[in-house]
């Protein structure tokens, strides 16, 4: 367990992309006195707002590995591209906004480093968090309830964007979702495969639509369908 890959799917995040990448750069993850090597993989999902110029700057300085989509495909597709490029023993998903804190990486990956887990979810409901929008909270809890019923588990936050994987666990999974239904699909598939999934508390600073939050109530319907579909097919 000597290398950490951080995958950052990015689409039109010009106000936050520089800050989040600098924070990711500044995080150190160590285990038993050994600091893990780190690679930052950014997938630009056809941004049109100036995000690409910032990413070009970071890539030219050798600070990130940059991949681009010629057309906007969605978060799931960007993560799939990142996974194909990742070379680390542990893979972390990091959204390009400032909702999820890179400073939580040591807590997020510890169960994997200690051999307890194959997959770790950072739960927004167990840690310190900004007050949620009520209907987003209800939607998240409802999707998590459906997950627990269908897959006989006790997750508190299926839809969290803070996820860490043992590379061998996620690279063997065929991810088909292109958009936000990545979250239920990957959850369904790791649970069906018997992966050891742990939750840890994280810090969460949720945005609202005025601040650029992209997921909406409409994304709940594909998520429900994904949970049901992948319970019975792969």
What does this structure look like?
The protein has 234 residues and is of the alpha/beta class. It has a single domain (3-232), classed as Spore Coat Polysaccharide Biosynthesis Protein SpsA, Chain A, CATH 3.90.550. Helix content is 38%, strand content 18%. It is built from eight helices and nine strands. The chain has helices at 14-26, 51-60, 75-85, 105-113, 134-151, 167-170, 182-192, 220-232, and strands spanning 3-10, 30-31, 34-35, 37-44, 65-68, 90-93, 119-123, 163-166, 197-201. Strands 5-4-1-6-8-7-9 form a seven-stranded mixed sheet, sandwiched between helices. A hairpin with a 2-residue loop joins strand 2 and strand 3. Helix 1 (14-26) packs parallel to helix 2, helix 5 (134-151) runs parallel beside helix 8 and helix 7 (182-192) runs parallel beside helix 8. The protein is globular. It starts with a strand and ends with a helix. The model has no long low-confidence stretch (mean pLDDT 89).
Descriptive terms for the model:
234 residues, alpha/beta, Spore Coat Polysaccharide Biosynthesis Protein SpsA, Chain A, 7-stranded mixed beta sheet, two-stranded antiparallel ribbon, 8 helices, globular
Text of the CATH class: Alpha Beta
- Total domains, how many? 1
Whole-number radius of gyration? 17 Å
Helix count equals 8
State the fourth-level CATH superfamily: Spore Coat Polysaccharide Biosynthesis Protein SpsA, Chain A
Helix and strand composition category: alpha/beta
Strand content: 15-25%
Give unreliable regions as ranges: none
Largest sheet: 7 strands, mixed
Strand element count = 9
CATH architecture assignment name: Alpha-Beta Complex
Measure the end-to-end span: 29 Å
What is the string of helix and strand elements? Answer: EHEEEHEHEHEHEHHEH
Task: Give the overall form.
Answer: globular
CATH topology: Spore Coat Polysaccharide Biosynthesis Protein SpsA, Chain A
